[in-house]
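Researcher: Please predict.
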Amino acid sequence: MKPSQGALCDPTTVRDGARARADVVIPMQNTTHAVNAKAALEQVCSGIRVASAPDYYSSQFIDHVNGTEYRGHEGIRRSVERYSKLLSNLRIEVKDQLIDTARVTSRFRVTGRCYGRGVSFDGITISRFEGDLIAEDWTVTDILGMLKGLGVWRSLLVALRS
């Protein structure tokens, strides 16, 4: 089947909002999922618009982050608060995404400042959708990369503060 006939080739990689290949057709719902997953990470998880969490996340949302589990919109608030205490000027930028039916995998970069030092590290989130809302996330971040960026003394200060 030719792409013009509506062939679906999943999974599809999306970079900076554009399709990686012109011959791949992305179902509209999956495009909405990618846009929502990106906005959820860059706006809600960065702390910029935590109050907008219900626009992106189910009220029954389950968040698995580096071995810790958070539930519901209150869990989102607690998770964001935890990272915001660690890093000031917290920003998250989605670098690329992989779309597969009701899931979107997002690769992102976290940046911020800790005790006056700029820090950046990478992470990956798999978001599972129910309808247009994220029902569950699995996230892993490069903690070792973050600690290397902080250096020994700042890492110790972070450990003592936690």
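Model: The longest helix spans residues 28-45.
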